[in-house]
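Summarise this fold before class:
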Amino acid sequence: MSKKEYFWNYLLQKNPRLLEDPHFTTASIKKFFDIVYGKGHDDGYVAASEMQKPTYRSSSTSIFEEIFGIKK
């Protein structure tokens, strides 16, 4: 199941009336927004934390030495 399908099923589980009566009230729009925002934030947080962190060169060598090597 894709994330999109998972989210839709989750949303329907929390708001079954979307299938029966898709009209929104002020309260239901707020609830819908909270769920969408929360899931989007959680997915973004997970995706960002899964990104590979950059590797930094050691402080003992310069970038020039890393590219061309160290003369001895």
